[in-house]
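Support request from a user on the community tier.

User writes: "When I paste my structure tokens into the form, the page sometimes reloads and wipes my input. The last time it worked, I copied everything first. Here is what I submitted, just in case something in the input itself triggers the reload:"
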């Protein structure tokens, strides 16, 4: 059985976050008039900062504002593909590409585990050569319409480890049978980092840098 190399995406593999940039990209492609609602996004973020809404609701509201409450997957697909191309051209850490190639050459199974939405992450993962994606799901109708509602857990914080473990069970991967590397930039991923055999703090946030130093986790910079 192949060992696992599990990567967070935003600010670990990518230089910046991708969720709001994707929504703006899709709005421009699908219905530029929706960009008139973009000034409302800082207010949803302020509501989140004030703990009036949780991260899950923040994502749902911003999706509703910028691309609508529902959109057929086929309609969204061209924007997804062009956004993935843009990310590969402009927003990938050089060191991430080298590490992905190293893990691939070592025979590890490459897994992208991210809080971003599966409906656009899969196109990025495919271009980077990942074998599997564990991401936040969307409620999808029988007619393959993507709704601005999260299906299951928002793949963030402790939920990320739960979803990784659920994926491993689905794939019939016993934890004791594999060695796991986990790469992340943010302290919110500490449960998965602590669970991994080889935790890597990548381009770490201040909180993660402190935690990694205390726990002896390897700190790496993929920015060059």
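"...and here is what came back when it finally went through:"
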């Amino acid at each position: 059985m192949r060992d696992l190399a599990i990567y967070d995406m935003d600010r670990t593999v990518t230089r910046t976050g991708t969720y709001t940039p994707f929504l703006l990209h899709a709005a421009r492609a699908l219905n530029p008039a929706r960009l008139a609602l973009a000034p409302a996004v800082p207010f949803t973020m302020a509501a989140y900062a004030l703990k009036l809404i949780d991260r899950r609701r923040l994502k749902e509201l911003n999706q509703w504002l910028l691309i609508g409450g529902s959109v057929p997957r086929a309609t969204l697909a061209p924007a997804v593909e062009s956004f993935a191309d843009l990310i590969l051209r402009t927003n990938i850490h050089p060191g991430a590409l080298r590490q992905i190639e190293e893990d691939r050459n070592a025979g590890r199974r490459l897994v992208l585990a991210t809080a971003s939405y599966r409906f656009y992450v899969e196109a990025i993962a495919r271009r980077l050569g990942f074998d599997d994606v564990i991401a936040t799901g969307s409620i999808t109708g029988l007619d393959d319409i993507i709704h601005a509602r999260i299906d299951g857990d928002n793949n963030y914080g402790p939920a990320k480890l739960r979803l990784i473990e659920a994926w491993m069970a689905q794939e019939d991967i016993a934890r004791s049978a594999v060695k796991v590397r986990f790469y992340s930039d943010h302290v919110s991923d500490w449960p998965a980092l602590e669970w991994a055999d080889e935790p890597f703090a990548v381009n770490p946030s201040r909180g993660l840098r402190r935690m990694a130093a205390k726990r002896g986790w390897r700190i790496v910079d993929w920015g060059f």
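Agent notes: The reload is a front-end session timeout and is unrelated to the input. The longest helix spans residues 73-90. The mean pLDDT is 97. Escalated to web team.
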